[in-house]
Amino acid sequence: MKLRDLAAVAALALAVAGCSVLGRAGASDLPAATEVAVGERFEVRLASNPSTGYSWAVRGGADGKVVRLVGQSFVPPAPPASGGPAPVGQEGNEVFAFEGVATGRTTLEFAYARPWEKDVAPAKLVRQVVRVR
Question: Would the pTM of this model clear 0.85, i.e. be above it?
Fold first, then answer.
Protein backbone atom coordinates (compact mmCIF):
# COMPACT_ATOMS: atom_id res chain seq x y z
CA MET A 1 0.00 0.00 0.00
CA LYS A 2 1.41 3.40 -0.96
CA LEU A 3 1.93 6.16 1.56
CA ARG A 4 -0.74 8.25 -0.19
CA ASP A 5 -3.22 5.38 0.18
CA LEU A 6 -2.35 5.02 3.88
CA ALA A 7 -2.89 8.74 4.39
CA ALA A 8 -6.29 8.53 2.70
CA VAL A 9 -7.31 5.59 4.90
CA ALA A 10 -6.13 7.43 8.04
CA ALA A 11 -8.04 10.58 7.07
CA LEU A 12 -11.18 8.55 6.44
CA ALA A 13 -10.85 6.77 9.78
CA LEU A 14 -10.53 10.10 11.58
CA ALA A 15 -13.54 11.51 9.77
CA VAL A 16 -15.60 8.50 10.78
CA ALA A 17 -14.42 8.92 14.37
CA GLY A 18 -15.67 12.51 14.38
CA CYS A 19 -12.26 14.12 14.51
CA SER A 20 -11.00 16.59 11.94
CA VAL A 21 -7.36 16.80 10.90
CA LEU A 22 -5.99 20.29 10.36
CA GLY A 23 -2.91 19.31 8.43
CA ARG A 24 0.70 18.31 8.50
CA ALA A 25 3.19 21.08 9.03
CA GLY A 26 5.56 22.61 7.63
CA ALA A 27 3.76 25.67 8.82
CA SER A 28 2.51 26.32 5.28
CA ASP A 29 0.53 23.06 5.34
CA LEU A 30 -1.86 24.19 8.09
CA PRO A 31 -4.90 26.29 7.24
CA ALA A 32 -4.76 29.94 8.35
CA ALA A 33 -7.57 29.23 10.84
CA THR A 34 -9.99 26.48 11.64
CA GLU A 35 -13.43 26.40 13.16
CA VAL A 36 -14.92 23.66 15.34
CA ALA A 37 -18.00 23.23 17.48
CA VAL A 38 -18.01 22.93 21.26
CA GLY A 39 -17.35 19.26 21.99
CA GLU A 40 -15.76 18.61 18.59
CA ARG A 41 -12.31 17.08 18.49
CA PHE A 42 -9.62 17.95 15.99
CA GLU A 43 -5.98 17.13 15.39
CA VAL A 44 -2.86 19.02 14.43
CA ARG A 45 -0.15 16.89 12.77
CA LEU A 46 3.39 18.22 12.73
CA ALA A 47 6.32 16.67 10.89
CA SER A 48 8.84 15.45 13.45
CA ASN A 49 12.05 13.45 13.70
CA PRO A 50 12.64 12.47 17.33
CA SER A 51 15.92 10.73 16.45
CA THR A 52 17.41 14.26 16.23
CA GLY A 53 16.36 15.06 19.81
CA TYR A 54 13.74 17.55 18.65
CA SER A 55 10.08 17.26 19.54
CA TRP A 56 7.02 19.47 19.34
CA ALA A 57 5.42 20.94 22.46
CA VAL A 58 2.31 23.07 22.92
CA ARG A 59 3.47 26.46 24.20
CA GLY A 60 0.18 28.30 24.31
CA GLY A 61 -3.52 28.40 23.58
CA ALA A 62 -4.53 25.06 25.09
CA ASP A 63 -5.24 26.26 28.62
CA GLY A 64 -8.73 24.74 28.71
CA LYS A 65 -10.61 28.03 28.33
CA VAL A 66 -11.48 27.56 24.63
CA VAL A 67 -9.75 24.29 23.68
CA ARG A 68 -8.06 21.59 25.68
CA LEU A 69 -5.37 19.10 24.77
CA VAL A 70 -6.80 15.56 24.97
CA GLY A 71 -3.90 13.55 23.59
CA GLN A 72 -0.49 13.52 21.98
CA SER A 73 1.22 10.73 20.05
CA PHE A 74 3.96 10.05 17.51
CA VAL A 75 3.06 8.31 14.26
CA PRO A 76 6.13 6.73 12.67
CA PRO A 77 6.59 6.69 8.91
CA ALA A 78 4.92 3.91 6.96
CA PRO A 79 7.11 0.87 6.29
CA PRO A 80 8.63 0.68 2.81
CA ALA A 81 6.56 -0.92 0.06
CA SER A 82 9.13 -3.72 -0.09
CA GLY A 83 8.21 -4.73 3.47
CA GLY A 84 10.12 -4.59 6.72
CA PRO A 85 10.40 -1.76 9.19
CA ALA A 86 10.88 1.87 8.25
CA PRO A 87 14.52 2.91 8.30
CA VAL A 88 15.75 4.45 11.56
CA GLY A 89 15.88 8.23 11.59
CA GLN A 90 12.99 8.90 9.22
CA GLU A 91 10.53 11.69 9.81
CA GLY A 92 7.09 10.86 11.17
CA ASN A 93 4.32 12.99 12.67
CA GLU A 94 3.59 14.23 16.14
CA VAL A 95 -0.18 14.32 16.50
CA PHE A 96 -1.90 16.63 18.97
CA ALA A 97 -5.61 16.00 19.65
CA PHE A 98 -7.72 18.86 20.99
CA GLU A 99 -11.35 19.41 21.92
CA GLY A 100 -13.34 22.62 21.72
CA VAL A 101 -14.65 23.35 25.23
CA ALA A 102 -16.19 26.84 25.02
CA THR A 103 -17.17 29.40 22.41
CA GLY A 104 -14.29 31.71 21.61
CA ARG A 105 -11.01 32.08 19.77
CA THR A 106 -7.49 31.00 20.67
CA THR A 107 -4.14 30.69 18.98
CA LEU A 108 -2.39 27.38 19.51
CA GLU A 109 1.39 27.73 19.50
CA PHE A 110 3.75 24.80 18.97
CA ALA A 111 7.53 24.86 19.44
CA TYR A 112 9.95 22.38 17.87
CA ALA A 113 12.93 22.17 20.20
CA ARG A 114 15.21 19.90 22.18
CA PRO A 115 13.63 19.80 25.65
CA TRP A 116 16.95 19.90 27.51
CA GLU A 117 18.16 23.05 25.73
CA LYS A 118 16.61 25.66 28.01
CA ASP A 119 18.31 28.84 26.72
CA VAL A 120 18.00 28.09 23.00
CA ALA A 121 15.25 29.39 20.74
CA PRO A 122 13.05 26.70 19.14
CA ALA A 123 14.10 25.52 15.68
CA LYS A 124 10.51 26.08 14.49
CA LEU A 125 7.35 27.79 15.74
CA VAL A 126 3.89 27.04 14.36
CA ARG A 127 0.72 28.96 15.24
CA GLN A 128 -2.82 27.82 14.51
CA VAL A 129 -5.88 30.02 15.09
CA VAL A 130 -8.89 28.05 16.32
CA ARG A 131 -12.44 29.39 16.59
CA VAL A 132 -14.93 27.41 18.64
CA ARG A 133 -18.60 28.04 17.91
Answer: no
